[in-house]
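::Encoded backbone::
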Amino acid sequence: MDLWDKKLGMAGGEFFDVGSDIHNAALDMIAMASYGLDESRTQLVRELREIKKKPASSGGKDKVIEFETPPLNEELAGLVVLADSLQVAMRSPIPKIHYTLYSTLSPTMRKAKADVANLRRREILAGIKRREEGKAEHCAVDSMLAREAAMAAKEGRAPNPHSEVISSEVS
């Protein structure tokens, strides 16, 4: 809401598009609920800090004010690329082969996978730290770490928070 208040003030009562704001808010909520992404690293907070009004164009009576917004950070952009990559498989007559080739040969996909893996590793480490400090669970990563600790105790083994099972659940 702070972002829209700021945009409203900058727009001087004129219309402005909120479509990308809604998209970014949903992306931020998913990252926060899944990974425990700190609010200061969210796109909307970044946009609130860096927003600028684009120069006015002649649009007449129904003009829409536009704003220059910062690009998504690499990790959030990686999540978007991975989600959008499903379209490759859905549009292909040979989806499994096409998706496999795309995901292994495309530099964009390789970078997105690496960026999301960095996000996952960082937030798993943050979740481990929260558990050690006795903090309450506040995201899916915390829940999965608690479940892994319980399963490890039941099976008489050390917890492995970086296991392939945990990583694939978080992704």
